[in-house]
Amino acid sequence: MVSLDTYIKTYQEKINQALEKAVNPLKEANRLTDGMLYSLRAGGKRLRPILLMASFESFQEDTNKVMSTATALEMIHTYSLIHDDLPAMDDDDLRRGKPTNHIVFDEATAILAGDGLLTYSFEWIAQDPLLSATEKTTLISWLAKASGPTGMVAGQMLDLLAEDKRVTIDELEKIHRLKTGQLINFAIKAGAFLGGATQEQLDELHIFSTYIGLVFQIQDDILDIVGDEETLGKPVGSDEENEKSTYPALLGLDGAIKHRDNYVAKAYEALENVQIGESKLFDLTKFLTERKY
After folding, report:
1. Do 76 and 40 meet the contact criterion of CB atoms below 8 Å apart?
2. Given Cys at both, which of 52, 97, 134, 135 links 191, Cβ 3.0 to 4.6 Å?
């Protein structure tokens, strides 16, 4: 059996190649293309598309069918990071160990590069020859909802409104179910849908993805305290410096770890209920819990 490390690295490379193939030919405005490619080439874990492909592989083997959808998902994730880093948002100078998009180019180019990745993601799914018309419309609808004003963007707005305020744990979880969790939920649901999962399995995977989305965010908050800046590729301690509400801030570091582990157990329980046998989703859940970057 392929190790998880090899599995992740293999799919990271495939996704990187697919992103290059999708965006590099765009020549209408070279500076725009350069801005889009700069942030895509900055690397990253590619966890969302990898989760999508792992979910699909729980039901079918050939991942060619989901490659365009996985690529589109990473475009949207990267767009969100470009905009998150802008001076009007988080005002960050470093992302994935490199200067942020607006530092290398300028604010206007960064905004347009993010806009380009967002809109192009839907075009990329729409022109996929391996998907049926029904599959395309379903995926585009789900992805728009996950990333839009009742999904990720809503979470970003609530996150901004929560700055310099003390929110409750329920309010914090609402923010992260939207801001972080919605794209992870799409990844799991889209992969299973294209793989032929039953509605019952999709329902259990929705529960699973909700918990691992929260696990992902709690671990992010923990790493902002105990992580290594070089490994993370971004400054540590920024959450406390910016007085952001985080799980460790509300629960203490030990409390945040216990909260994370409780959700990990619930995620495994939901995954067991899907009855898909051995799946890389089990290994990826462990990886998300223990990751150092």
Report:
1. no
2. 52
